[in-house]
Design a protein that fits this description.
single chain; 3-stranded antiparallel sheet; 15 strands
């Protein structure tokens, strides 16, 4: 197949307010505010751009990082892309992030590897789930998401093994095993966190790791490593595959699936099997708590939006040593961001999945989630964090009280309210979300900020009553009696020092 559709020159990357753009445009134009697509596509694209940035210009230390700047990083990336232009063709003798040797694997239709698309005998509930014809840009984006976010299951043709004597794609009986989940999705869907700047170029600069930081992390024995497009692995356990397992590049672009684009789908097989967070290896964007007996990761939870995890991600503000949840992407970049830009955001996103007998899928309440919270560099610090944590703790207490009051309302009428109480608290948090950014901005010590927090408390208290009234009707005398006796009392919350 001829060399065509070069990702450097052709538009394929979705960008908010601009449509599709090329890699060259991303690093040439600073007006692009943010990436487009669903949350998983955004994460995969951001990881690709960061991999290009790390390959083009990994600074030695913070001084070199600051001297580089967002514009300097973009220029270095453009020079790098020009040097490696021939490795970014989607088709040809060296197709981007693909394995021509895997052509013996059976072809899967594109929709079969997309969690939001219904294939086979799965019921189609909406147009979103219908399989569509993909153009070259869509195929490139799908290919990229498979590198780290592939779901486990029988869709991988593991009968094809490229590394001689490799047994990782066989089960105990010696037969082809089901494919393992990509390291970026894990068992239930890992939550990923990044710093976001005023534009894409600044975002890449804020998230760029230095050699010094990688040494302090002590995670990747190979350091930055070699980008896969420069040197693609030859098999599941070849020398380059082992290097990717121990390098930053291997977590940005894990190559967990060996793919080759065909006319009507993908030749599709399991690729490199990376270590999990329980084995001490993580993506820098993941958040993991190693303080207990068992490591705990922050998972995607559609019923608990990522903004509610902000205090968990920033817990190091009040910690003297490494404990609690740690996201290297956030922890390593937060201090530098405070000293380099006036404002930045923490963006958290991912996909929740279910699994059964080794097969992963999105069903029921599983969904994509994302939240973005902007932080003002001037007010960040231990005092600000303590105030924010206090406010979030009191909101959690409100939600728990609402849950108990709704249950009490239905118990008074000898009705089981076990399924309705969670819906009431979920509505409360949905209402709070619209005001959370304002709460973050008003956690400074200024007197005016304290006044604004008191106003916000009155608003949050009204949300409790709104959620309660929505799920606890008072149409009959019996309902009215239960409604009045069980209605939440927020006076203590309103009287507390805000």
């Amino acid at each position: 197949m001829e060399n065509r559709f070069n990702l450097i020159d052709e538009p394929w990357i979705p960008v908010a307010d601009h449509g599709r753009v090329s890699l060259k445009q991303i690093f040439s134009n600073s007006e692009y505010r943010s990436l487009g697509g669903n949350p998983v596509q955004k994460i995969a694209l951001l990881k690709l751009l960061l991999a290009i940035a790390q390959a083009a210009a990994t600074p030695k230390n913070e001084t070199e990082w600051k001297e580089l700047g967002a514009k300097g990083l973009a220029d270095r990336c453009l020079a790098y892309l020009a040097k490696w232009h021939d490795r970014f063709y989607l088709y040809g003798d060296k197709p981007f992030m693909q394995m021509p040797a895997i052509r013996a694997a059976r072809v899967q239709p594109y929709g079969a590897v997309l969690p939001e698309v219904s294939t086979g005998n799965t019921t189609v509930l909406s147009q979103v789930q219908v399989q569509r014809v993909l153009d070259d840009g869509g195929k490139a984006l799908l290919l990229l998401t498979q590198m780290g976010f592939a779901l486990s299951g029988k869709k991988t043709d593991n009968s094809v093994v490229l590394t001689p004597d490799y047994t990782g794609k066989r089960n105990d009986k010696g037969k082809p095993s089901t494919g393992k989940p990509g390291p970026s999705v894990g068992h239930m869907g890992l939550l990923h966190n990044f710093l976001i700047g005023k534009d894409i170029q600044q975002t890449l600069w804020l998230n760029l790791f230095t050699v010094q930081q990688l040494g302090q992390m002590n995670l990747y024995s190979e350091g930055v490593g070699c980008a896969p497009w420069e040197w693609m692995p030859e098999g599941e356990d070849c020398d380059q595959a082992r290097r990717l397992k121990s390098s930053l590049m291997g977590r940005l672009l894990p190559v967990s699936r060996f793919c080759l684009i065909a006319e009507d789908g993908l030749h599709y097989s399991e690729g490199i099997a990376h270590a999990s967070y329980k084995e001490g290896m993580v993506d820098p964007s993941m958040a993991v708590n190693y303080s207990g007996k068992e490591p705990k990761a922050l998972w995607v939870d559609p019923e608990k939006r990522p903004w509610r995890e902000l205090t968990a991600l920033l817990g190091f503000f009040e910690q003297s040593d490494v404990q609690g949840f740690q996201s290297w992407q956030v922890r390593s970049g937060l201090d530098r961001a405070c000293h380099s830009v006036e404002a930045f955001a923490i963006w958290s996103a991912g996909l929740r999945v279910s699994s059964n007998a080794g097969e992963q899928y999105a069903s029921g309440s599983d969904d994509f989630v994302e939240s973005q919270v902007w932080l003002n560099s001037e007010i960040l610090g231990g005092i600000w964090f303590s105030q924010l944590k206090h406010e979030m703790d009191t909101l959690n207490d409100l939600a728990k009280n609402l849950f108990g009051r709704v249950q009490a309302y239905f118990k008074a009428q000898t009705v089981d309210g076990g399924k309705i109480a969670p819906r009431a608290t979920q509505l409360f948090w949905q209402l709070c979300e619209r005001d959370f950014q304002d709460l973050v901005d008003q956690c400074a010590q200024a007197e005016e900020a304290a006044l604004q927090r008191r106003n916000l408390r009155r608003r949050f208290a009204s949300y409790i009553h709104q959620a309660y009234d929505t799920f606890c009707p008072r149409d009959t005398a019996r309902q009215l009696d239960a409604w009045a006796s069980c209605r939440p009392n927020n006076s203590k919350y309103l009287k507390q020092e805000a």
